[in-house]
């Protein structure tokens, strides 16, 4: 019988800027953020099976809950419930992205799980229903499911396509400290920013850096107060030759440097690895559309 395994990539999410623009009465924060992806990803696959199961491997598998509270299994269970599915799946997750790191790894995995399980089980969920399910799984899941560069509003569920962005490269650095998203948001004071969207296409990495320079990540102060090493990471990225900008993504602790070409990014990553052997450092392309092959 032909192998019926279906697989997908779950790319890292990067917040090029992230403004906290208000707070809801239930404690969630209203955001304005430009989200893109990196050419770095977890991998997920699913094969037909009688029951639902999850096997996890990869360099960051140890940091994940294997049992029922894993977001991938929760995703699978929610999908079976929503679509009245009575089939199982043997799911395998290869965890290549650091956990609790601001790159939406869990959300990316959940979004990829929704896609492959819908294929494995021959489901044709309406887009709205799938997006609703994604939003209930986590605030970053809808934008990961969308898979394209977008402005994110509301508490994460309102997605608006971003204007065309230029080819650019990233150096991602994680200093090995995990941050709890609720804790970081909890340290956010009431000093809210304004929305900062733009409509014109950006044609070079240098222009993108200039656009981003007037925006920021409002969670940086809170995250750095909790884990001061984030300040060291930003300083090291800023000092890297060719870095156009350095910034934290999401609620941290991962930070990125923006670069105009892959060679400069690779050289910066090599130097950072040599100087900080304990840090996770990767050069990757900035990806505006995960549904197309990586550039
Ligand atoms: O949905 P997710 O599990 O990713 O969110 C983690 C936590 O981050 C929330 O429970 C909430 O405390 C905080 N959060 C927030 N405002 C947002 C997104 C997340 O306060 N827009």
How far apart are the termini? 35 Å
Main β-sheet description: 10 strands, mixed
**Approximately how much beta-strand content do the residues carry?**
25-35%
Strand segment tally: 10
The outline comes out as globular
Give the % helix: 25-40%
Radius of gyration: 19 Å
Q: What's the mean pLDDT score?
A: 94
H/E element order: EEEHEHHHEEEHHHHEEHE
Q: What ligand molecules are bound, each kind once?
A: cytidine-5'-monophosphate
Helix count equals 9
Brief summary of the model shown:
With 295 residues, the protein is α+β, with helices and mostly antiparallel strands.
Structure description:
By secondary structure, this protein is α+β, with helices and mostly antiparallel strands. Helices cover 31% and strands 28% of the residues. The chain is built from 9 helices and 10 strands. The protein has helices spanning 71-83, 105-120, 127-137, 141-146, 181-186, 205-213, 220-226, 229-238, 262-275; strands spanning 6-23, 29-49, 52-57, 88-94, 150-153, 158-161, 169-174, 245-248, 255-259, 280-287. Strands 1, 2, 3, 4, 5, 6, 7, 8, 9 and 10 form a 10-stranded mixed β-sheet that branches. β3 (52-57), α1 (71-83) and β4 form a beta-alpha-beta unit. The radius of gyration is 19 Å and the shape is globular. The two termini are 35 Å apart. 43% of the residues are buried. Bound molecules: cytidine-5'-monophosphate (C5P). Cytidine-5'-monophosphate binds next to β2 and α5.
Please give the structural blueprint.
Blueprint: E1 6-23, E2 29-49, E3 52-57, H1 71-83, E4 88-94, H2 105-120, H3 127-137, H4 141-146, E5 150-153, E6 158-161, E7 169-174, H5 181-186, H6 205-213, H7 220-226, H8 229-238, E8 245-248, E9 255-259, H9 262-275, E10 280-287
Parallel strand pairs: 3-4
Antiparallel strand pairs: 1-2, 2-4, 2-5, 2-10, 5-6, 7-9, 7-10, 8-9
Helix pairs in contact: 1-2
